[in-house]
Amino acid sequence: MDARVLEVLEFGKIRSLLAERASFAPGKSLAESLMPSTVHSQVERWQDETAQAVRISELAGRPPFGGLLDVRPLVRRASVGAVLRPEELLDVANTARGSERLRAYFLRHGPEAQATGLADLAESLGVFRGLEREVARCIDQEGHVVDHASPELAKVRARLRTVRRRAREYLERLVRSSRGQRFLQEQIVTLRGGRYVVPVKQEYRNEVPGIVHDQSSSGATLFVEPLPVVEANNEVRQAERVEEAEVERILTELTKRVAAEADLIVHTIEIAAALDFISAKAALATDWNAVRPRINEAGRVGIKKGRHPLLGAGVVPIDVRLGDEFTALVITGPNTGGKTVTLKTVGLFALMAQAGLHLPSEEGTEVCVFRSVFADIGDEQSIEQSLSTFSSHMSNIVSILERVHEGSLVLLDELGAGTDPTEGAALAVALLEHFTENVGCRTVATTHYSEIKHFAYSHPLCENASVEFDVETLRPTYRLAIGVAGKSNAFAISKRLGLSDAIIERAQAEVSAEERHVDDLLRNVEEERWAAMREREEAERLRRRYGELYERYHDSFEKLKVARDGILEEARREAQELLRRAQLQTEELLGALRKTGQHQRERMAADARDQLSDTLRTIKGSDESDQTPKRQDRRESDAPVQRLSTGMPVRVLSLDQPGEVVQVKGDGKVVVQVGAMRVTVGAEELKPQKQAAHHVPARSGHTKVIHSKTMDVPLEIDLRGMVSDEALESVDKYLDDATLAELKNVRIIHGKGTGALRQAVQAFLQQDPRVSGFRLGEQGEGGSGVTVAEL
Predict the structure, then answer these.
(1) With contact defined as beta carbons under 8 Å apart, do 332 and 412 qualify?
(2) Quick one: CA torsion of 333, 335, 341, 342, rounded to 10 degrees?
(3) How confident is the model at residue 749 (pLDDT cuts 50, 70, 90)?
């Protein structure tokens, strides 16, 4: 691609935006050097990579490039025998660790996101666990070689600490002594040249025999190494030299390990840079809400709602097509109307697509792979070369003519401008004819000349297009209409700006009748075309809106039907399960009563079991019956509050349970005793019941037993001090009594202790069908020393 064309179409700014989204230096370098490809297969592969990166980032977020550094210079130094410093070795180890994280990310999420190409690329990233572990073992995160890097280093550092401590202890005793406080400038121990010294006042130099290593700038203080610590300092220096040699040996060994992996490390950096570069393309596509364009080899360009990426959020989308019915597009309209923006959008989209970038447009956008792109855009006047605007434009066009071929895209701004209108228009027509008929390339040109519009109307390979301009507001709309030629609107704009009618009429008289007729025809066609387009857009908007509403309400209706059926089925299952459990509890109670020989209670339990069985059959039968009669029956059974009185037997329709009226409230609410519980319901939820004669004694006897049990059975049982067998037997009997008494929750006190009794009790409750659930006591209930069971 011509470097000048890349500059004119501002492709460099796109590369800068791409580089900003790269994570580390090699990836940024690839972004800054991005060039469009002219090979169709390569463009397709690049587009596929960007699409895969978009999918994987949507699934798992941005790839983890943290820790990666460009350590290639360090690796090359290691390869030629240089010894790497600790912080440099840390950079290599951190990069190796980051590479492994990146590899795992793509191998884990790539197949899930249908990004197998990126997963295959990531699989070639190196794994350097041995090198990572060895560097981590020898060097801490502050870049210091640690004591346990080698036995020799640990030994010499231990000796070093000992001799340093001995030297410091002598000097600190000197500093704290009364003698030292007299002749020392400050009561401190410091270092000069790696040796421990004390600051001695100049006048007391002879009081401290030793070696002077330094003095203050004023000369009032001398830094003296007392003779008693000279030998200790010598040992310190000797140990430090041994330490330095051992550290150097360790760093040399680590560097050799880096050198041994040099080729793989360099390869890993290059692969990581490629993945970073591809991920930056995906980030740019996401930020722009861009789509993957279809790539064709037929020379077609079809941009749908394309937005120039450098013009910000307020840019008006444009639709452009080229290369199907026609190979040249002539765009006309007033200045500042968006003609040049359209021209640049077409050219930039071609470059971006061929560079593997997604396009800020709608689905269905397609471009072809051009072998070259040429552009003559903007004011090319050159004072230095003594060229006029026209001369500069023509120089560029001559250069284009020398290199253009069938697979080219040619962009020409203000074709024929800058010279005599008649001659300029003739040249423009000749050039368009040459590009379309002789070369066969794809051409987009902007112009003001009517002769070029007429040529585009008459030529089968050319098509007119115009940018809409609102004469009332004197503002362009930037919308492009293909198939309609635009007008310069010079007279209308001048009139709106205040030019007198007389001058405008005189100017219009200079325009030939034929030209005015053609302009009137163009205006009428344009007006009708825009009106039709607006109506079509409104109809399409309404069609989409109605389609969305239909889908939404249809889906909601289907979901409600499914939810209703599911709720009803779940309610039936829950009712059957409750009755099954109650029936099972009754059977167990009946068995227990048989053992005790209490025949009267046995008959009562058998009656209860029969009643539960009848209720179960009723529910099962209702599953097979239609729901409408139930609703009708309920409406017919609504009980006006005036017909209810205290003590009246009723059936609670919402619970399908018998009860007895306890209180009739004034707000239409009624308190009903249902078994052992009281509920407040609306009067419409109650159906008066007739009380059978034989029902009284049976009910009173049953009520008497339950009432007796309710009065006698406590809400808790204390098992503390019992062994497990005795405790479980007591719990079993207590649960029988609590069930007969219709208790809902009971407390079982087993204490904390070793926890064995608690475990035994909870294991028993876990298997007992009378128990629907249990939990440990909360604060105020006894905590872990109590289990609360729900019956």
Answers:
(1) no
(2) 10
(3) very high
User: What DSSP string describes 399-420?
Assistant: HHHHH--TTEEEEESSTT-SS-
Beta bridge partners of 672: 661, 679
In Å, what is the CA distance from 187 to each residue of 179, 222, 427?
A: 11, 13, 96
> Dihedral, CA atoms, 14, 16, 22, 28, nearest 10 degrees?
120
Q: What's the helix, strand, coil split of the chain in %, to 5?
A: 55, 15, 25
Tokens at residue 702, please? 């049953």
Over range 459-477, report the average pLDDT. 73
Q: What is the DSSP string of 154-184?
A: HHHHHHHHHHHHHHHHHHHHHHHSHHHHHHB
User: Using 50, 70 and 90 to split pLDDT, how confident is the model at 692?
Assistant: very low
- Count of other CB atoms within 10 angstroms of residue 301: 24
Kindly state the tokens that stand for 306.
């394309």
Higher per-residue pLDDT: 491 or 53: 53
Q: Rounded CA gap, 456 and 120, in Å?
A: 51
What six digits make up the tokens of 596? 């005790």
Please give the pLDDT value at position 617: 59
- Give per-residue burial for 110-149: e unless 16+ CB within 10 Å, then b: beebebebbbebbeebbebeebbebbeebbeeeeebbeeb
What is the mean pLDDT of the segment spanning 250-264? 96
Do 315 and 476 contact (CB within 8 A), yes or no? no
Q: How far is CA 505 from the centre of its chain?
A: 63
DSSP single-letter state for residue 188: -
- Measured N-to-C along each axis, helices 724-740 and 695-712 cross at an angle, to the nearest 10 degrees, of 140
Q: What is the mean pLDDT of residues 240-252?
A: 95
pLDDT band at 574 (very low <50, low <70, confident <90, very high): confident
Nearest to 332 by CA among 412, 438, 252, 227: 412
Q: Work out the mean pLDDT of the chain and round it to a whole number.
A: 83
Amino acid identity, residue 58? E
Q: Which residue has the higher pLDDT, 623 or 177?
A: 177
Contacts of 646-651 spanning 24+ positions with Cβ under 8 A: 648/688, 649/688, 649/689, 649/690, 649/691, 650/686, 650/687, 650/688, 650/689, 651/686, 651/687, 651/689
Cβ neighbours of residue 170 under 8 Å, at least 6 residues apart? 226, 228, 229, 232
